[in-house]
Amino acid sequence: MATAVKTVVDCISENCPMPLVKTRAAIMDAKKGDVIMVKGTHPQSYEEIPMALDAMDIKVLEQKYEDATWYITFMVS
Predict the structure, then answer these.
(1) pTM metric for this prediction
(2) Which of 3, 5, 22, 37 is the most exposed place for a label (fewest CB within 10 A)?
(3) Mean pLDDT in the chain?
């Protein structure tokens, strides 16, 4: 990925609603243009976080699963 990640939100082993809560907190602390990566293991959060970002008009740059961990990367707009 060409854009450097500024913040990593580690939600490994955390269940809902904590991954979404931590993602929203990171967005509130970020500046426009900051790239945030959220990583976790809770399957429902992998679906819910992109839907929440879409509702905030934030586009996902990358979304992937590797082994049992998922990664969602986006830019704050």
Answers:
(1) 0.93
(2) 3
(3) 95
